[in-house]
C-alpha cells in the first residue's frame, strides 16, 4: 500500500482551485469542489495530457482537458464527453490538521 503524499494546506486550495502532487510516478490533481476535495489521476485518458491545465466547472463538478475538450467528473472520474471514453483513476483524499493528503491506492 502506497504512502499518503502531502498536497498543500487547505488554505491554499479554495473552492474551484486545483493542486498537483506526485505519488511515485503518478501525477494527481486535487480539486476543491465547494469544500469537498477530490483527487484524480492528472492524465487524460484520451491522449495523456495533464488535466490540471484545464478549467473546473463547479456547477457540473467536472474538469475539462484543454487539449481536445474531454470532460471528466471530479466525483468519480467518469468521462462525460468525447473524445475520452475511459474514466480517469480516482484517488482518496484526507484532511488532517488543515493539510490535504492523497495517495495512489492502486499500488
Ligand atoms: S488529451 Fe485530453 S481530450 Fe485529448
UniProtKB/TrEMBL annotation:
<protein>
    <submittedName>
        <fullName>Rieske (2Fe-2S) protein</fullName>
    </submittedName>
</protein>
<keyword id="KW-0479">Metal-binding</keyword>
<dbReference type="InterPro" id="IPR017941">
    <property type="entry name" value="Rieske_2Fe-2S"/>
</dbReference>
<dbReference type="InterPro" id="IPR036922">
    <property type="entry name" value="Rieske_2Fe-2S_sf"/>
</dbReference>
<keyword id="KW-0001">2Fe-2S</keyword>
<dbReference type="Pfam" id="PF00355">
    <property type="entry name" value="Rieske"/>
</dbReference>
<feature type="domain" description="Rieske">
    <location>
        <begin position="5"/>
        <end position="102"/>
    </location>
</feature>
<keyword id="KW-0411">Iron-sulfur</keyword>
<keyword id="KW-0408">Iron</keyword>
Amino acid at each position: 500500500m502506497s504512502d499518503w503524499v502531502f498536497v498543500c494546506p487547505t488554505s491554499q486550495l479554495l473552492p474551484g482551485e486545483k493542486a498537483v502532487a506526485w505519488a511515485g510516478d503518478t501525477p494527481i490533481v486535487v480539486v476543491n469542489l465547494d469544500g469537498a476535495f477530490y483527487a484524480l489521476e492528472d492524465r487524460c485518458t484520451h491522449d495523456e495530457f495533464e488535466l490540471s491545465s484545464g478549467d473546473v466547472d463547479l456547477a457540473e463538478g467536472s474538469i475539462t482537458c484543454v487539449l481536445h475538450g474531454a470532460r471528466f467528473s471530479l466525483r468519480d472520474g467518469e468521462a462525460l464527453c468525447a473524445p475520452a471514453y475511459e474514466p480517469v483513476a480516482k484517488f482518496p483524499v484526507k484532511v488532517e490538521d488543515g493539510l490535504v493528503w492523497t495517495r495512489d491506492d492502486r499500488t
